[in-house]
Each structure stands twice: as C-alpha cells, then as structure tokens.
Amino acid sequence: MPRRRTSSSSSSTGRTTGATGATAAPRDRTPQPVRMRRRSFGDFVKAFFALVALAVLLVGVPGALATQIGWPLPDGVPSLDWLQQEITVHTFLNILTVIVWLAWAQFTACVLVEMKAALSGVGVPGRVPGAGPSQLLARQLVAALLLVGATAASFTPGLSQLGNGYDANQQPTVAAAQATPGLFAQQQEQASGAAAALAEQASHAAAHADAGGSTAKQGDTKYYRIQPPEGRHHDSLWEIAQRHLGDGRRYQEIFELNKDRVQPDGSKLSEASLIRPGWIMEMPGDARGGELVEMPDEAPNVSPDLQQQISDYAQSGDHAQGGDGAQGGSDRAQGGGGTAQVSLPDQQRPAGSGSGHQQATAVGAESDSSFGLPEALLTAPLLAAGLLGALGRRRRQALWQSAFGSVGGRRGMEPPTPTGDAQDVQDALLVGADPEGVRLLDRSLRGLAASLAEESRALPVVYAAWLSNGDLHLQLAQPAGKPPAPWQQGQDQTFWMLARTDAESYEDADTAAPYPGLVSLGTMDDSRLLLNLEAVPGIVSLSGREADRAAVFASVAAELATNGWSDRMTITLVGFGEDLTPLAPNRIRHLEDVEALVETMEAETRQRRGALGAAGQDSVLTGRTGPAQHTRWAPHLVLLAAQPSAEDAVKLAELAADASRLGIGYLVGTETGDLPGAAWEMEITGRGKLLAPLLGLELDAQLLPAAQQRAVVELFVEADPERDSNGPANTPPFLVDISEQGRPAVYARLVGPYEIIGLDDPDGERSALLHEALALLLLHREGVHPRVLSSALWPRGVTDDVRTALLERLHDWLGADPDGTPRLATDGSGRLTLAKTVVSDLDVLRSLYHEATQGRGVDSRAVRGRLLTDALVLVRGPLLADRPEGRYRWLTHEIVDAQLPLLVADTGLALCAFHMEKNRAEKAIEALNAALRTAPADERLWHELLRATHATGDTDRLTALATDLIGRSGARGLPPRTEALLDELLPAWRDAIAAVG
User: Fold this and answer.
1) 412 occurs within a structural domain
2) Which parts of the sequence belong to the Bacterial transcriptional activator domain (predicted)?
3) Which of 649, 671, 576, 593 is CA-nearest to residue 18?
C-alpha cells in the first residue's frame, strides 16, 4: 500500500519545565528548511515500471489494435441489409475493438489531465466524465513516474482505494483511523533506522502544551492557499499551523473552520491529512505570516482570480451563515503533515468501547455530570472489567481461605465495606466495566489462534487492535494471507476483522492467549486503540509532565496485571508503582533502578534467545501455537517511568532491537522526548490527550490518576486474605431485629425463588425491572449509587428521564412507613438506601448466624441451637433461583454467590457441632444434609458428615457414604484430606467399596 512520507519542517519547540508546569515559548516560529529524503533505488524502479505501463497502455494498445485487427468500423454508411446479417465472430471482435478504442481514448485523456495538473502544481486535476477507476489508475502511474522529480503524494490516493469510487464532489466513503499502519510499514522496511529518524523528527514537531492556546484570538479573517509541491515537500495543515499559529497542534482549528466547505475545484476537505494544492483555507484570527491574505480588503499582490475565489469561498463559511465557526479542538485525530494514513470503510470503522459494550460512553451520556465518580474509570471499560474481576477473585479467595482455616465463628464472612474514595472507585468500576467485551475479545483471539493451529499456520504479528461496537480489527505487521473463517479481510491485506455477531459464536478454546501484550491506550472518535507492547519493534517512549506520565503508566500496568485476555506474564515496574503489586502479586515485580533493570533484561534476553533456538522457533508467536503453548512464551513487559541515563538508554535500545521476536516490550518515560531506539514516540498533555503527531494519532488517553490509583490499591489491600488474619470477625453491614417487635413492613425472599411480602405486585411490564432494582438495593444495604443502579439495569446505557422515571416508580411502589418516612431514601453521598423496615431473608439469615455465634448464642446453648435451626429453615435454594434469563447480569460482579454457600455451610457446621456436643448424631446428620443442598461442594460439610455417620456406629452406612463421595468426585478422585479422614474412620474403606462394586 503506498505510503506518504515527508519530513516535518516544524520549528523547535519548548518543553514543559519546572514544578509549576510552565511552558516555554517557541524558540523560533519561522519556517525551517525541509529535510529532503534522497531518491532511493526503489523510487527509480517504480518510475521505470510506471513508464513501461504508460507506454504499453498509451502506445502498445493502439499499435496492437491497428496492426492485428485494423479499423473496426465500416468504410461507408451501412444499409438496412447490414442490420439483418448474421453476427459472426468477426463482427463480435469489431464491437469489442470499438470498446477497447473508447477505453483507450478515455484513459489517454485521464493521463493528459493528470500530467497537466502534476506538472503545473496548481489546483487538482479535472474530472474526466465517466472515468472513475481509470482516472485513479492514471493518477497512480503519473505520480510514480514523477516521483523521482517532484512529490505527487499530496494528491495521490492509495491503490487500496481503487474500486471504492472516485468522485471529488461527494463525501468520501472512508474514515481515517490514522495511526499505526504507516509507522509499522516503515518499521518493517527499515527497522534499524526508523527509530532514530522518528526521534529526530519528534524533537522538531513536539507541540507546545500551552503556548498559543487552543482557541484563536478574535481578529480579521485571513485566508491561506495550499501551495504546490516543492521538490519532495508538500504543504500540510500541521506545518501551516506551525508557521502561522506558532503551534502545529492547532491544525485542528484550521480543519474545523474549513471542514466540508466546497473548495474552488468543487471538492471538500474531509480529512485533515488530505489537502490539495490550490485549495483555500480560512485561518483563525490570530494567524500571522506573509503568505496570508486578508479579505475583503484589497490585496495588491493577489491576482483578481484568486481574490474572486477567496471571496466566493468566504461566503460559504459559518460566519457568513450566522454560525460560530468551530475553532475549538476536535476530539477526532487528524493526521498531520507527513503522516501515513489508513482509511477503513465505514462499515469496518474501529471504535472504542470494548466489544459492543457501550456502558462507559452511553451511561456517560446520560448527563453532563459523573455524579462524583472518577471519570477516568468510567471511560475505561476494559481496565474497569479487569480490576473488578480481579477484585472479585481476591475477595472470593479471602472468603474460601478464611472458611477452610476454621470452623464456626470464623472471621471474613463479610468483606469490609469500602468508604470514601475507595467506595467511589468501586462504584466507578461497577459502572464502567465491560466484562462481556473482555470475554468476547478473549474468545476471539483464542479462537483465531486455534483456527490457525488447525491449518498449521503461524500466528501473524499484530501491532495493534481497534475495538468498535463489538467489531474487532487486528492490524498486522505485514500481509498474512486470507484469515480463517469467520474472520474477514479488512480494508487491505494488513487488516483482519471479526464482526461482533461472529465473535459471539465462538466457544472457549483450549489454547494459549496469542496476544497477551495488548493494552488500551485511549480512544479516538468512537475507536479504542490497544497497542501490542510485546510486538513493537523497539521502545515506545512517552513524554509529558511527570504526573501525567504516571497516570498513563499506572493505567497500562493495572490493565496488563488484571486483563482477561492473557494467561501468564511478567510486568516489571521501574521508577513507579511499588504499591501496585497487590493488584497481581504473581505478575508484577518492582525494581529499584534502571541499572538493576538493564542487568535483569540482559539475562532475560539471553535466556529467551537460547530457549527459542533450542525449541527451533522463530519467535514467541510460533511457540504459542506449538505443543508447549501453555507453559512457555509468556510475555515480559517493562514499564520504565524514570528517565534513563544516556548510557542506559543506549543499552535499552540495543536490548529492544530484538525484543519483539522474544516477547519483550518496553514502555519508557522521557522528559525530553528524545530516546534512542524509540519506535513510537508519544506525548501526554495536561488535558489528557495522548499525541503522536507524526503518526496522526490524538487519543483521549486512558489514565489512572494518583488518587484513583491509591483507592484501587486500597480495595485490593483490604481484600487480601493474608491481611490481619488474627483480627475480629467482620460484622454484617445490616443486622435485623430478630425479635417479635422487629417484624418488617416489607419482606423479600431472595434465597430461593424471589417473593415479596408486604407489597402489591406492580402492574404492567415494568414489574420485572422494579423487582430487579429492589433486589440490588437489598443486597447492598450500605447504599447504591444511582449510576451503579442504572448501569446494572441498562448495561448499554440509559437517559436521565428513563432513570428518573424508574426511581419515581420504585419510590411510589415501596411507599412509606406509618410515621411517613419513605422506604427509599438518599443518603448524604447521594446513594440510594432502603429503610430498616425493608428486609430480605438473606438479612435475617446473616443476623441469625451472627447472633448465634457472636451474640446471645455464645452464652446460651439453648438460644444458639434455636437461632441456628431457624437460620437453616430459611434456606430454600440458590440466590434468586427463578430469575428470568437475560436479567440480573450484574450478579456476575457480586461475591454473594460465594458468600451464601459459605454462610449456609457455616450455619450447618455450627448446628452440627451443637448436636454433637450431646451425641445427637442423627440430628447432626440432618443439619449437614440440609446445608449440603445449598453448598454441595463444601468439603468441610462432607468431613463432618463422615464423622457424624461414624459416630452412629453403622459401618455399612459409612461405606455407602464413602461410595457416594467417590461417585461425586469423578475422575479427579477424592481430595487428599478426605482420603486421610476415611483412612482414619474406615481403614478398610477401599476394600469395602470394591466389594460393594
């Protein structure tokens, strides 16, 4: 695919310095000489083949027609008899010859038009009627022929667009997803020299954070005419903004002022990187420079024709129509000068929220307020899903570890309820998380790996992925042939695309995660970009203020540590993130300094090279599809926030040169923006923009600011099963008055089929929604944030009026207590809470167990037995056993599915112990069997059942129970502790079971 390559000529810029973040003014705002790339041998080869093709088409075709077929038309006026003659092969050939002559004439006209436009360098070529792809092909050949003399890239579209249709007066049917492909193509062609060239260009093209501002000052309207190419240099909006506005980043203001306005040649500006000589650009009022024309004042040095064109163009602007000409920065990333573009068809447009989940964006659109929740996590669905899933696993681990550590009266029944910032962050995770998107992404990638393995094909190198409305676009380093079904070819051979509907058909594949190094960087338009850190051929550098860089590093580290599309990996943090270790202790390690990092990575690099050689693999990707896929080739991702010294930077560049083949990725922070071996240079601004101007990227960065980082870590630390293991048991968040005086006004039965006592059933189709909302509130007596409630009920988003209407109906349905107190209220933090008179059976179950083991039951045996018996009677089955399919999906975020079986098991064990104190084995067995109906997998219950059965003295009964246990255990066999217990209680159990058969 042809790539446009130009050298940026922007002036040197200042950098943010000092603690205050003040930005120095530009050192030189005058245009700088353009660095010219010498013509390569490839340029001459392309020109030669273009010349041969033109000669064949322009001279060879008519020559062959004239000499081989001759003149196809009749010599005189045909008679009516001619129309009645039989159509022979000769007649048919003559008709085809006429068609070929017409096509040749049209193509020749296209070549002449394109040659005239290219040589004059002014304006765009005129359209040859009906030419379409023929004129596009002529343009390509003319451009290649003139490549050795002058740049034609500014008006030459890619060959990949052939067939999409060419109409300068219509809106293009492609949308720019600029970024990685241009860079990656250059890296494939010249991996060793690209990093140095990009670093040198970046030092000139880095934008000023504050200088010049993002809003044009008021002043007279000025116009600029796009200049024709000079040598190998052509105009770009970035360079125009750099020369006349003092900041190349302000090219978006020029783009917004002129977007979709008809140019003198009849076409329109639709992409900031696709401008043509002769076009007119309206400039912001503070533009300065001798090339600008102020209108309608008389401009003596401007031709009358140009004055007329500018005057006509001015009448089409927003100011002429009473509008406000948009001068603010657009959130869309438009390519700057010299940036290669990738145009994706609209139907394949990559986008941002993960795999069809629009929670973060749609819910965020409910109102202009985030209700006090951290916006950074609300707009990071994949990161939030990873953190939420990891936090749930950590809390379950704490529950199970605590459960098997003691019997009865144990601590850890309830995880600590977060407060303050930690509570806000937890709510933001619940609102922003997209577990379905993560699941689809993981299944899609593993399914692709499995399909390729079945075809004995290697995994292609993937540099990046774009997520859009559930569609997944993989950006390959180089063409890899036809993708396996249901994957489809993208816009060209370097894109593979999977539609959401096809992704949903994938099942779990027993294969290693193929691209575990993918990590979210941010969004552009509706597109979310995931960069494959382990595949970038070199270092990814990040410049900007220290605090802004730290937020990016923390986001990347947190997502890599908790994402759901990887199996194993090592994440080495240097210069930051020592407190991030609790997120994934098995993945994250922290090194003190760069020297330790270099020493570690030198050894790691040698080891991986040797392992690849011994295994006969070319890269980690080929290893991941082999027989050892689950045990080898895990990525090692290095995140270095500290500025390395010049010597260390060179060492890191040498290590990174071969890193992509070895599955090692480097993200390195820099204060200056210059870093040896940097393959991709990015900058984070104080406004949360992640910029790579030379690549055409401007993302809304995914961040994890320091305050949210601390709150996230606090959630994980509080859930650590090893923390305060000798501390007191946690009290349930809501205790019910279990006396006769505490009879509730509204009683909901959640443990088993869902029933509500004390309220009339709401009428209409909204009944199910109200029941679900009440269930969520009952499971969170500490309060539920309105956005958490709305995102749980409407995962794809909801508007303010719909949510408000639901809350009003819920308020009316629940009503008020006799004293007039509403049963649905809002606390001081804005969270929805239920009155104490609204109770669930789960609340009662918790209260009964707590009172029996830590309250009155501790000192009274009779009270303890009665309370535990009453508690077991409440258990009628699993939580919300009859919930309709498709609803209550928010339960996947909860740990109540682990809490309830453990609570029931603890109750059964406590009641068993109560009966065994009086040697009432049959009563103990009855209590254990009741608990096993809800917690059949709890090994503790089976152990106590074996002991109680042994106490009856009935050996046959004990043998039958052991046989039942073996049948339940399946191919895995009995757990070691169960076998040991049977050896103690029934030494000959193996022979007895074998005899039974």
Assistant:
1) no
2) 840-986
3) 671
For range 460-483, the mean pLDDT: 90
Question: 122, 264 in Cβ contact below 8 A?
Answer: no
Q: Do residues 482 and 563 both lie within one domain?
A: yes
| Burial tier of 674 (Cβ tally within 10 Å: 0-12, 13-18, 19+) | middle
Q: How far apart are CA 215 and CA 435, in angstroms?
A: 39
What is the per-residue pLDDT for 148?
54
On whether the CB atoms of residues 491 and 342 are closer than 8 A, the answer is yes
Q: How far apart are alpha carbons 705 and 560 in whole angstroms?
A: 16
**Encoded tokens for 720:** 């650590």
| Contact criterion met (CB below 8 Å) for 287 and 222 | yes
**Residue 809: closest CA among 766, 841, 870, 852:** 766
Same domain, 524 and 662: yes
Instruction: State the virtual CA torsion across 810, 813, 819, 823 in degrees, nearest 10.
Output: -30
- In the block, which residue shows the tokens 């880095």? 206
Is 733 strand, coil or helix? Answer: coil
Domain end (from 841, 863, 888): 888
Confidence of residue 244 (pLDDT cuts 50, 70, 90): confident
743 token code pair: 């009879």
Q: Let me know whether 536 and 470 are in one domain.
A: yes
952 to 161, 284, 958, 984: CA distances (angstroms): 83, 93, 9, 16
Q: Rounded mean pLDDT of 643-663? A: 89
- pTM of the predicted structure, to 2 decimals: 0.63
Q: Residue 52 to residues 98, 145, 373, 549, 844: CA-CA distances in angstroms?
A: 24, 10, 65, 53, 88
Q: What are phi and psi of 377, to 5 degrees?
A: -85, -25
DSSP letter string, 651-706 = HHHHHHTTHHHHTEEEEEEESSS--TTEEEEEEE-TTSEEEEGGGTEEEEE----H
Spatial CB neighbours of 38, under 8 Å, sequence gap ≥ 6: none
Is residue 59, in this structure, part of any structural domain at all?
A: yes
Report CA torsion sign: 894, 900, 901, 902.
Answer: positive
861-873 helix and 896-916 helix, angle to the nearest 10 degrees: 140
> What per-residue confidence (pLDDT) applies to 397?
82
Q: Report d(CA 98, CA 297) in Å as an integer.
A: 55
Mean pLDDT of 437-459: 91
Going by DSSP bridges, is the β-strand pair 518-524/539-544 parallel, antiparallel, or unpaired? Answer: unpaired
For the ranges 637-641, 729-733, 952-956, which has the lowest average pLDDT? 729-733
Question: Is the same domain home to 675 and 756?
Answer: no
pLDDT of residue 555: 96
What secondary structure letter does DSSP report for 362?
I
Element (H, E) at 542: strand 539-544
Asked whether residue 311 carries a pLDDT value surpassing 60, the answer given is yes
Cα distance between residue 436 and residue 430, in whole Å: 13
Q: Are the C-beta atoms of 54 and 143 separated by less than 8 Å?
A: no
Spatial CA neighbour of 34 closest among 241, 235, 200, 233: 233
Q: Which amino acid is at 217?
A: K
* Helix pair 786-793, 800-814: axis angle to 10 deg: 100
The range of the structural domain enclosing residue 622 comes to 432-716
Does residue 498 share a domain with residue 546?
A: yes
Query: What pLDDT score was predicted for residue 147?
Result: 57
Q: Please indicate, yes or no, if residue 759 is contained in any of the structural domains.
A: yes
Name the token pair of 495: 């894109």
Mean pLDDT of the chain: 76
Closest of 905, 864, 772 to residue 403, by C-alpha: 905
Whole-angstrom CA distances from 288 to 11, 215, 217, 244 are 15, 15, 12, 5
Structure confidence at residue 497 as a pLDDT band (50, 70, 90): very high
In this predicted model, what pLDDT tens digit does every residue of 847-864 receive, in sequence order?
Answer: 999 999 888 888 999 999
- Do both 756 and 702 map to the same domain? no
Residue whose pair of structure tokens reads 């000068």 in the numeric block: 337
